[in-house]
Amino acid sequence: MEAAISCKFHCKRLEGHWKEYWPATDPAELTADIKERLAAATAAWGLEGIHPLDGGVVALTCEATRRGRPVVVKLNPRGHPDDAQLAGEGDALAFWRTTGAAADLLDQRDDGFTLLLERLQPGDTLEDTVPGLEDRLIEIGRLVARLHRAGPPPPASFIEVRDFAPSWEIPAGGEAVLTHLDLHAGNALRTVGGWKAIDPKGVRADRHADVWALIDPLTMEDFPDDPGQAEATAERWLDLYATAAEMDLGRAREWTRIRAGAEAHEVHDSGWGAALHRMADVLG
């Protein structure tokens, strides 16, 4: 009973985000579908001790045990305009399994919208563990480089970046790999063997597009207002990140400008939006 009440509470919290992301979609229908899938997954996978986890703005994520092993059940909403983006998350984690740089996918159901994942231990985020911004950029860059060592996925196996973000200015060339596209300090969790990534977009793109850590809200809190200082800061961050991520500095710079400019037109946070505009301007 307690788990059901907690699930209801967390779904209600998520419904506010879903309504913002997909105004034409009925959040109550998404919640009903998630509850039905959670019940079916619980029976199919023999889950016990299910309890929703705090955090997250899209998926309902629960801790549980399966045959005594701690696991995570993640239920992405389906039936909205971004279905194609969310459906590939499990396949992306499976593709990266050999790198040891991502949470291990144990199983998936419902065309990839219901995932059974390893429970990362101790599971602290990079955001909570590493206080220095530049140190975080280096660690995320190293994690990105590990993911990219899996190489390019087969054509048509994952959504292409042009379909994922049709409005982006896509530069010619570049080595296509499976990119995370949303790897920030809250999506890197600590394990006994090092950092592992969670919550990927899983998009086939030029690896230099994987620069979200340079423009995410936590990073941009420290971005200067003064144009000269902003340019110097952007160049320093880029050098640290591109070196750690084993990227060409020029292409990483170009992609950071593109992604900062595109995101600046989408965000509702005026402070972050203004910082993104400054980032795009100094890199233009």
Describe the fold and architecture.
With 284 residues, this protein is of the alpha+beta class. It folds into two domains: 2-119, 2-Layer Sandwich (Phosphorylase Kinase, domain 1), CATH 3.30.200.20; 123-283, Aminoglycoside phosphotransferase (APH), C-terminal lobe (Aminoglycoside 3'-phosphotransferase, Chain: A, domain 2, Alpha-Beta Complex), CATH 3.90.1200.10. The protein is 44% helix and 18% strand. The protein is built from eleven helices and ten strands. It has helices spanning 2-21, 27-45, 83-86, 89-95, 126-129, 133-148, 161-164, 217-220, 227-244, 249-264, 270-283, and strands at 47-52, 60-66, 69-75, 105-109, 114-118, 122-125, 176-179, 188-191, 194-197, 203-206. The strands form three sheets. The chain has a five-stranded antiparallel sheet with strand order 1-2-3-5-4, with helices on both faces. A hairpin with a 2-residue loop joins β2 and β3 (69-75). α6 packs across α9 (227-244), α9 (227-244) crosses α11 and α10 (249-264) packs antiparallel against α11. The relative contact order is 0.10.
